[in-house]
Specification:
single chain, 6 helices, mainly alpha
Length: 115
């Protein structure tokens, strides 16, 4: 499978951030909000760094920039395990399932490349 481009990765991360923002406001407990906020913070830092790249570089293969993004997969998997309890709205839950597998695939491909 060819590596994901910076542009495609940025699109996926921004979609995830939008869903996580919805999930944050829909979450019923403070612990769920804290878990979601932590993930939002990690992806926001990575997106901020990706946005510093020239648009001319967006066709290049994506490479992880921030250290936090390297450690976010277990947090995403934990959120996925508890998604029925954490994410209250059906539309958010459905969209989250769709985007999460794509984001985890991008991140796991990055981890495989570094090993």
């Amino acid at each position: 499978m060819p590596p994901t481009s910076v542009a495609d990765t940025l699109r996926e991360y921004l979609s995830l951030l939008e869903l996580l923002d919805d999930a944050y406001w829909e979450a019923a407990s403070i612990s769920h909000k804290d878990m979601i906020y932590d993930i939002i913070s990690i992806f926001s830092q990575e997106v901020a760094e990706l946005n510093k790249l020239s648009v001319m570089d967006h066709h290049y293969p994506y490479e992880v920039i921030t250290e936090g993004i390297r450690r976010v997969v277990p947090k995403l998997e934990r959120l996925d395990d508890y998604r029925e309890d954490v994410i209250q709205r059906t539309q958010t839950l459905t969209d989250f399932r769709d985007i999460l597998s794509s984001v985890i695939g991008i991140l796991e491909a990055q981890m495989d490349d570094t090993v």
